[in-house]
Amino acid sequence: MENGGGLSRRFIFGIGVLFLFSFLNVWAGPQRxxxxxxxxxxxxxxxxxxxxxxxxxxxxxxxxxxxxxxxGGSCDYLxxxxxxxxNAKILQSWPIELLPKVFPPRxxxxxxxxxxxxxxxxxxxxxxxxxxxxxxxxxxNGRSLWVLRINSEVKGNGASAxxxxxxxxxxxxxxxxxxxxxLLLAKHLVNQYAKDPxxxxxxxxxxxxxxxxxxxxxxxxxxEQNDYRMWRKNVRDNGGGVLGVDLxxxxxxxxxxxxxxxxxxxxxxxxxxxxSEPETQAVKNFIESHPNIKMLLSFHxxxxxxxxxxxxxxxxxxxxxxxxVFEKMAKTMAAWNGYRPEQSSELxxxxxxxxxxxxxxxxxxxxTFELTPKSMSQGGFYPGAGVINGTFQANLEPCLYLxxxxxxxxxxxx
Length: 414
Ligand code: 0X9
Ligand code: ZN
Known about the structure:
Layout: H1 2-27, E1 40-46, H2 50-59, E2 62-66, E3 70-76, H3 77-85, E4 92-95, H4 113-126, E5 131-138, E6 144-150, E7 164-169, H5 177-192, H6 197-203, E8 207-211, H7 216-223, H8 278-288, E9 293-301, E10 305-308, H9 320-337, E11 340-343, H10 344-347, H11 354-362, E12 365-371, H12 388-405
Parallel strand pairs: 7-8, 7-9, 9-12, 10-11
Antiparallel strand pairs: 1-3, 1-4, 2-3, 5-6, 6-8, 10-12
The chain binds N~2~-sulfamoyl-L-arginine and zinc ion (ZN).
């Protein structure tokens, strides 16, 4: 008995040590990164006004799909719990891992980071009199934000007196179509220069910058497992195995004033400070060092929309002439691509986005295009390679128009 009792005490002690060891093993600092991240969800909630949508955005949901009565979007585990605690009516919630996904080999026509960089470099080296490719700065993990500059007079980072236009793609990792459209635009402009007199005339008086992939680390993270992660943010390690800052909430104009989150796990995490991320810093520095840039177009997916400032407030931009320019340009472009033109905040309030900063700080006429498709049921972020060419064709005329009006933006009012 004595002996038996001693044995069982030793057994219990042994089990205790084992538990303690495995606990320490899981929670000890360096091991933490190996923890499986908390699940993220696709949620559908009722909302029929911009105010209702903004309440949901303020919870930290990245709204992606808006119908007249609902919104769909992605959120982290904590945001979902808060929605439930706040008695939000959740119509659907699916762990993102369980959503049907298209297997990447079927999407081989999409360009990853290496392919995008190689294509831009090849365009520049085959057309040294017209184009140059260089880095606008490094991403967090040291990948380059490659720029293709199209200018027959100036190469690389040199100053130009010509009116400038900048096209940006893929702030959000999973929005791969938003890499393809600016990449095809770069190819079209360079390859048509000698063939299409309209393109030549346009480019001979403009300075065009194209950065098809602002978030290369996020893009590679989204596709690295031979399946999509449906990743949105960059890959900043926020500690505790929680990754990512939303680059389209990290710009410094009215940063953190609504529609973003201070929770590092949120899909719309604004970061610890405005411009805390190397990717947004690179875009900021690039634009500031090219004061001739008059127009900006930031490609996103999806919903088929043309958006213009403000996004952080329901107020229109205060300068009534500028407002008229935004409205006129958006309407003109909508006639070509069939997208719906509106002020960003009509969708929902979001602060810290590219276009509010570009207009708010730099008075650049800045637009966001939400490309194809219209809805999640049409493929959402992963609509397949079949839409690439048609989406580019639908948006070519709007892009040529933006290059054209850069010479005299107010001229559209005459
Ligand atoms: O939320 C965003 O960052 C953009 N939509 S996305 O689905 N691509 O994430 C839209 C930004 C436009 N700004 C505002 N709605 N304020
Ligand atoms: Zn986006």
